[in-house]
Design a protein that fits this description.
Order of helices and strands: HHHH
Structural class: mainly alpha
Mean pLDDT: 83
Number of strands: 0
Helix content: 55-70%
Low-confidence stretches: none
Largest sheet: none
Length: 77
């Protein structure tokens, strides 16, 4: 926070100048994009769907292998 304050203080015009420049492009300060446009690369929904597939792939497919390794006492079993 301190670094942000120092950097903001050194910008000519301060926060009002930063906000004015960012307002020139309407999407500059947008944090989440809830649009369903398939041409848009980064949206909230692509993160949810991609995260679900990633979680299924990393936790769902490896469970059998981990159980098999933890249940065996040695390499032969």
């Amino acid at each position: 926070m301190l670094t942000f304050g120092i950097l903001l203080h050194r910008i000519p015009g301060g926060w009002s100048e930063v906000a004015q420049v960012a307002a020139a492009n309407a999407n500059k300060l947008r944090i989440l994009d809830f649009s369903w446009n398939l041409a848009t690369v980064y949206t909230f929904w692509s993160g949810v769907i991609g995260g679900a597939f990633f979680t299924l792939a990393s936790h769902g497919t490896d469970q059998t292998i981990v159980q098999r390794l933890l249940a065996a006492r040695n390499q032969r079993e």
